[in-house]
Amino acid sequence: MARHHYRCPLRWADMDAFGHVNNVVFLRYLEEARIDFMFRLAPGEGSESFTGGSVVARHEIDYKLPLVHRHEPVLIESWVTRIGAASLTIRYEVKDEATEDAPETVYVRAETVVVPYNLAAGRPRRITAEERRFLQEYLDEPEAASEAVSASAAASASGSGSATGSLAA
How far is the first Cα of the chain from the last one, in angstroms, to the nearest whole number? Predict the structure, then answer.
């Protein structure tokens, strides 16, 4: 399974009064990564895949650690965990990769349900065969995806700092 990598710059305006990235800003970061994945990397020159519109049906975010401003971009890794007839689920990790000097640091784990949308007709549409082929390249094994969700839910229940609300103000 391939994963999409997007390096997102941090802007000074992303910080809140507490000196870290505001929780709402993480939704913008996820949007940037998702748009880069679905539109810039859409299959084929001249392909109309994903260009007809899409809407977000659901977001879920677990805030793991505060992210403070720095000059280096943060990595947003994204992949597909479910492809339905008329929706798909994208999972993300906002993180710093491991280096020789430091382990991997995950700031946010999130998931978005996206529905392809026909703007002219004003209604959802089915995922095309071309879109499905493209998405399947990024499809995680179902067992691995459900294990990751279970681990995140267990960590949240044990009070490890995960939240479905907000760590940031």
Answer: 35
Instruction: Give me the residues paired with residue 21 across strands.
Output: 15
pLDDT in tens, 2-23: 999 999 999 999 999 999 999 9
2-to-6, 7, 67 alpha-carbon distances in Å: 13, 16, 26
By the 8 A CB rule, do 85 and 126 touch?
Answer: yes
27-52 mean pLDDT = 80
Number of helical (H) and strand (E) elements in the chain, helices listed first: 3, 6
Token output for 45: 């020159």
Report long-range pairs for 83-87 (Cβ below 8 Å, ≥24 apart).
Answer: 83/127, 83/132, 83/135, 83/136, 83/139, 84/127, 85/126, 85/127, 86/115, 86/116, 86/124, 86/125, 86/126, 86/127, 87/57, 87/113, 87/114, 87/115, 87/116, 87/124, 87/127
Mind listing the pLDDT tens digit for each residue in 115-143? 999 988 999 999 999 899 999 999 997 55
Residue type, 137: E
Tokens 């994945």 correspond to 37
Query: What pLDDT does residue 53 have?
Result: 85
